[in-house]
Amino acid sequence: MAIDTDTARRVAKLARIKVEDAALPALAQEFSAILGFIEQLNEVDVDGIEPMTSVTPQRLYRREDVVTDGNQQAAVLANAPDAREGFFAVPKVVE
Amino acid sequence: MTDLTKLTIADARDALRKGDVTSAELTQACLTAIDAADALNAFVHKTPEVAKSQAEAADARLKAGDTPDLCGIPLGIKDLFCTKGVPSQAASGILAGFKPEYESTVTSQLFDAGAVMLGKLNMDEFAMGSSNETSVYGDAVNPWKVDDRKLTPGGSSGGSAAAVAADLCLGATGTDTGGSIRQPAAFTGITGIKPTYGRVSRWGVVAFASSLDQAGPMTKTVRDSAIMLRAMSGFDPKDSTSANIPVPDFEAALTGDIRGKVIGIPKEYRMDGMPAEIAKLWEDGTAMLRDAGADIRDISLPHTKYALPAYYVIAPAEASSNLARYDGVRFGHRAKLDKGDGITEMYEKTRAEGFGAEVQRRVMVGTYVLSAGFYDAYYNRARKVRALIKRDFDEVFAAGVDAILTPATPSAAFGLGEMADADPIKMYLNDVFTVTVNLAGLPGIAVPTGTDASGLPLGLQLIGRPWEEGDLLNVAYSLERAAGFVAKPTHWW
């Protein structure tokens, strides 16, 4: 399936990655090549096959629903590019 | 004792226990070798202070008679593992400056066992690559060299492979999502095992594709892999896919006796255009196992050719989800914003600046295959094909096959930069023999068994039954002994 520049632009937007307009045609071409490769999967008869969710047929581990951790505000914020007054700071979201 | 850095983990363990050498001496020898090997660009964050204090503590334990296998053994740690207070960047610009406030389960277990961390190792960015050329730190370089060219150590665990092959450390951690332990091990003449999915905790390991990622050891010998794997393995309540089953003593399984074991040779791995020397390596390996008393059987894994395309749907899909967390808010890089930029511009600019080209490509492919209208056509179809690939293996094992022998890579190490203009799919073909194992969640090990015409190492892969790493390591041990691969790279760096 050939990907056009509009689709490439839409995908970049969905992925929240800024791509300059000039770079879109090359990106679209790369997507087309990769998707062309992936399309081999259409040759496989998958009727009646369940999509795999886990390689090991195990029930996910469960534990008591209790607090096991916490009170680590300083550690949580230690790597933030911008932390103020105990919060992560970001550009204004609501006008 | 000279050449301390050339010791295997097993020999170093014995020497430490006997008091013939101290961890401080061993560690210093490695630190000196590392400082003299900057040309390999394997160690990207050196941690000599951590190493020296851990070595001192290990020597005290050894003196007190408390001697776990890895007590005092100097190791390198792939940059993908979060190590408390030490840069852990997954070789990405987006994690520049990130110093975890916590320790990954694997490194915690290694440190509890007395292991010494020499530093963090180069890799492909977010483990996405097969040549260590997507790293923000620049290329890692293979210590093997046959002409003027610098060769790739493979990827994504390229720094780990280069460091072990060049005797900068006694062993290293790696991770493997599509072949990232086994391919670099083969390219550098060392041993690397990807255990069964769920054997080793993923907690604190930067996630690429969570249903495929597994950590494992990269070492000089099969015995060392057995020793190190045991220390890395085990149930971890912090990883919901970690298996709550006992970890056996893998080293005790190394009897070298494989008489009567059934070894499958899958016909689908005999790809069109397979180089003659790879085909010969495979035949030679088959003969070695036959001579050791194994029962060689031709088998079929019919969906093999669909493994790579299925992987290149599933892995990017999971990556696009996992890497959504890099948004410039909680850790790592945030782009400088222009006046009037809002939060969307912050996300978009941060991710464009922080992620390299291959990571951006895979995140966007993943976004596309998961997007409305394509989810069934791509993602669900790939997951169904994945079920068929696993069924191929289940049927072969149910028919009595104990292990499967294949080539590890389609070629020896290639030159850095040689694939720069190739289409991405050409690079993806490096994983053609290894990726099936991740999709099926099986253990797989690469063992060096020969060289190509120019003298570069080549490896074979053995694939085992789930949870039977001990048996798999024993077959690998038998192959290692028969092949007698002892070549080392000539020191040029």
TrEMBL record, chain A:
Q: What class of enzyme is it?
A: ligase
* BP GO terms, sorted: glutaminyl-tRNAGln biosynthesis via transamidation; regulation of translational fidelity; translation
Q: Which GO terms describe its molecular function?
A: asparaginyl-tRNA synthase (glutamine-hydrolyzing) activity; ATP binding; glutaminyl-tRNA synthase (glutamine-hydrolyzing) activity; transferase activity
Report if keyword Transit peptide is assigned: no
Instruction: Name the UniProt key words of this record, in alphabetical order.
Output: ATP-binding, Ligase, Nucleotide-binding, Protein biosynthesis, Transferase
What reactions does this protein catalyze?
L-aspartyl-tRNA(Asn) + L-glutamine + ATP + H2O = L-asparaginyl-tRNA(Asn) + L-glutamate + ADP + phosphate + 2 H(+); L-glutamyl-tRNA(Gln) + L-glutamine + ATP + H2O = L-glutaminyl-tRNA(Gln) + L-glutamate + ADP + phosphate + H(+)
Q: Give the enzyme's EC designation.
A: 6.3.5.-
What is the stated purpose of this protein?
Answer: Allows the formation of correctly charged Asn-tRNA(Asn) or Gln-tRNA(Gln) through the transamidation of misacylated Asp-tRNA(Asn) or Glu-tRNA(Gln) in organisms which lack either or both of asparaginyl-tRNA or glutaminyl-tRNA synthetases. The reaction takes place in the presence of glutamine and ATP through an activated phospho-Asp-tRNA(Asn) or phospho-Glu-tRNA(Gln).
Matching NCBIfam families: gatC
Quote the subunit structure annotation. Answer: Heterotrimer of A, B and C subunits.
Q: Which family does it belong to?
A: Belongs to the GatC family.
Q: State the name under which the record lists this protein.
A: Aspartyl/glutamyl-tRNA(Asn/Gln) amidotransferase subunit C
Q: Which organism is it from?
A: Loktanella salsilacus
Q: Which gene encodes it?
A: gatC
From TrEMBL, chain B:
Name the SUPFAM superfamilies for this protein: Amidase signature (AS) enzymes (SSF75304)
What are the protein's UniProt keywords?
ATP-binding, Ligase, Nucleotide-binding, Protein biosynthesis, Transferase
Q: Name one GO biological process term.
A: translation
User: In its keyword annotation, does this UniProt entry include Signal?
Assistant: no
Query: Per its database record, what is this protein's job?
Result: Allows the formation of correctly charged Gln-tRNA(Gln) through the transamidation of misacylated Glu-tRNA(Gln) in organisms which lack glutaminyl-tRNA synthetase. The reaction takes place in the presence of glutamine and ATP through an activated gamma-phospho-Glu-tRNA(Gln).
Entry similarity comment? Belongs to the amidase family. GatA subfamily.
**Protein name as it appears in the record:** Glutamyl-tRNA(Gln) amidotransferase subunit A
User: Source species, please?
Assistant: Loktanella salsilacus
Species classification: Bacteria, Pseudomonadati, Pseudomonadota, Alphaproteobacteria, Rhodobacterales
